[in-house]
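Technical note accompanying the year-one report. For the benefit of new consortium partners, we illustrate the data format agreed upon in the data management plan: each record pairs a sequence with a structure-token string. No post-processing was applied to the example shown here.
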Amino acid sequence: MTENLKMKDQLSRTIQLDKIPTRIISLVPSQTELLVDLGLEPSIVGITKFCVHPKHLKQSKTIVGGTKSINIDKIKALQPDIILCNKEENTQEMIADLEQIAPVHISDIYSIEDCMELIEMYGNLFSKEIEAKLLIQNISDALTDFKTFICDKPKLKAAYFIWKNPWMVAGQHTFIDALLRLNKFENYYGTYQRYPEITLDNNPPQTADVVLLSSEPFPFKETHIEEIRHFFPKATILVVDGEMFSWYGSRLLKAFDYFKSLHQDH
């Protein structure tokens, strides 16, 4: 890599680098997993407490905080070459502080196409072009296969819950919404933006065909099904793996088979 190479992130911000980054801090769990799958685990020096895949990573890497709250002194001490963030996961205040330490690359993900772009960016950024190209091809093949599987399935109205007290759902302009549509789920709260708080009422009863209770960020369990059935008496209610619907990057390799199982089992 030549000196003073300029690269763009997904907000079209210019990232100034003088070498291939070999000391990486990742503040986004799904991006940490992607780095490992690109063969970059040895270069990762710092992660968040939510970076749980692969499981062994938290034993070997420095935990620098969460996605919304970080220990700046720990990050400085790690002397990173680059810090990887996400527009939604991390705050503007954090990013401003981090930019005083090292170049910050910000992802912005609303679609599978955005995921592919990020993988390609990381391939170029970390000199892992061959690995990135292979990963993109494998995800593309799995996506094509899933589209064939789903094409004759009926379209259903689906509500996707991410929190309770207050109730919060996934609306439009989210990666979750894109994956719902891929599954032929018409988003029941698709007229709302992002992740709105909603008020549930059973008079009249809600009319979604399917209610999906995400395992994250709120840890919905089977015990919550009857509570939500009070409002959606005719819906099929499922607790689903939130990572499959919200983790972008290499997690997509596992997501399509998971989606198939949802449709086959129910």
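Partners are asked to follow this layout when depositing records. The first strand starts at residue 5 and ends at 8.
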